[in-house]
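Narrative of activities, Objective 1.

The group set out to show that a structural description can be obtained from nothing but a protein's sequence at a throughput compatible with the screening campaign. Below is one input-output pair from the validation batch, recorded exactly as produced.
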Amino acid sequence: MISIEHTPRKVRFEQAGAIQKSAIEKPFRPYHCCLDKFYICAIFETMATIKFTFEDKSIAPVTVSDVPADISILEVTEENDIHLNHNCGGVCACSTCHVYIKKGDEYLEEISDKEEDFVDRAINPKLESRLGCQCVILEEDAVIEVEIPDQRRIIGHEH
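Output recorded for this entry:
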């Protein structure tokens, strides 16, 4: 029998015998572990989870786990082979990395006036519109849902 005590960034597993790896579930990444005669105490660094959906329904949804804080949604797409245009190279000088943040906007840096100006120029902007290059993840325990607009409508589209 395993009992789990969860507090922010700390998980304690107690078991009469050895702990099984299957008892450790994502999005936790081992950070520090110690073994005592009666229990195993593990401290884990939590990581963000980003769920991507697409306006182009021929593309299946993608969930990316183990995302660290301080990187942008655009960087997450680049590192995970998810197509998101970025004609300016991700420096907030165009609107081609436009995305819709469906859930978890509280875990992202606030929108700037400059970003708002470029979002207004995007194809079909909505209230939840952001630029992927400016959506920097603030917290490692974030769960964010992002919808990527149909990339075929964007000038400069490559495929």
